[in-house]
Write the structure tokens for this entry.
Amino acid sequence: MQTFVHRFQDLQVYQLAFACSADLYRLTQPSNKEADLPLAHKLLATSRAVRANIAAAWGKRRDLVALIDHLSMAQLAAADMQIWIEGAIGSGHLTAEAGQDLYDRYRCIYLALDQLMENATAAAHRRQGSEGAIWRATA
């Protein structure tokens, strides 16, 4: 039986991104040193950008170009997160274990977004192809 997605919060990729944001928030709170705050803010802002662009893509799901644009921006933010996580590990703001776990999950998010874009494009081509075939047959 196929499960229908009724809101962006039902998307598995959004749920994973939300869990990563919650973990980042938890991991960045214990170190409230002034020097740590800019990095913590950047990590949290970038993690929110992933979620916000997934939500925006959902809102634009009927417009393929806008959908792909927002999914691409979410994917870019996920890749950006990997860079910030590497820096946080290297500077000692995140443990190697916690950082690697987050890094791997953002890699999964990146790949899931790639799959969503491929599926959306393929579905649009199928719809366009069938409409085009009907149009050609009646023209």
Q: What stands out?
A: The helical segments are 12-28, 37-59, 64-90, 96-138. Residues 132-139 have pLDDT under 50 and may be disordered. Residues 12-138 form a domain with the de novo design (two linked rop proteins) fold (CATH 1.20.1440.60). The chain has four helices and no strands.
